[in-house]
Amino acid sequence: MRKNTEEIISGVYLIGGPGITAADDAAIYLIDFAGDLVLIDAGAGGSSSQIVRNIEMLGLNPASVSNLILTHCHIDHIGSAPFFKKQFGTKIMIHELDANAVERGDSRKTAANWYSTTFPPTSVDQKLKGDHEILKFGGEELHCLHTPGHTPGSISLYLDRVGKRVLFGQDIHGPFHRDFDSDIKAWKKSMQKLLALDADILCEGHFGIFQPKERVSEYIERYLDEYE
After folding, report:
1. Beta-bridge partners for 68
2. β-pair partners for 143
3. 2, 5, 78, 176: least CB-packed within 10 angstroms?
4. Which CATH number is associated with domain 6-226?
């Protein structure tokens, strides 16, 4: 049974993922920056129309989705990117180290072959570079941190709003596989970077939303212990 979308904090919504859109979708988050909408990840590709309906059900206009930020290049996070680009002219952003897989439609690097599907080569409008890039929307700052490990170009994002720090840390738990060019050593450093943020809320890619900050740090530390 499908549940409804969820407002996590003022203007930050969970609009897709298992139980909301499709079982093979990773979590899809939407941030409303005073009418300028930013999507974080886009599911596996089969639920594009449902994502659009969920945005409309919030009373928002899907045509206002100006940017789609992909946390990494895997199919369960990037699948509806071509749809949003074609339908609404949405700009696609991803870290430069994962951009090639998206632009080439690489079945192995995008893990499309794990899902017995394909991903069409899709051009990236903005390649995030370096360790930390700050994007500005509606007078607010959205921080993009390079957190390699799961893939070379994995990123995590955070936003400070209404006195809370909201962290979008999609695939903190892995998995780690040579097909993905995973690097556990780099991942451990990335997790320390996330712990140092002292976030109040964690919006994860597959296991839900964690708050308050004690639960956020416990969640990250649990995986650090597991891969010790």
Report:
1. 39, 92
2. 134, 158
3. 2
4. 3.60.15.10
Would you call 183 exposed, middle or buried from its count of C-beta atoms within 10 A (0-12, 13-18, 19+)? middle
- The pLDDT tens digits for 121-149 are 999 999 999 999 999 999 999 999 999 99
End-to-end CA distance of the chain: 38
Q: Which two tokens stand for residue 78?
A: 């990037």
pTM of the model: 0.97
- Token pair recorded at residue 151: 């893939």
- Cβ-based neighbours of 157, under 8 Å, separated by 6 or more: 40, 69, 71, 142, 143, 144, 145, 167, 168
Coil, helix or strand at residue 14: strand
CB 173 within 8 A of CB 139: no
Per-residue pLDDT of 78-111, as tens digits, reads: 999 999 999 999 999 999 999 999 999 999 999 9
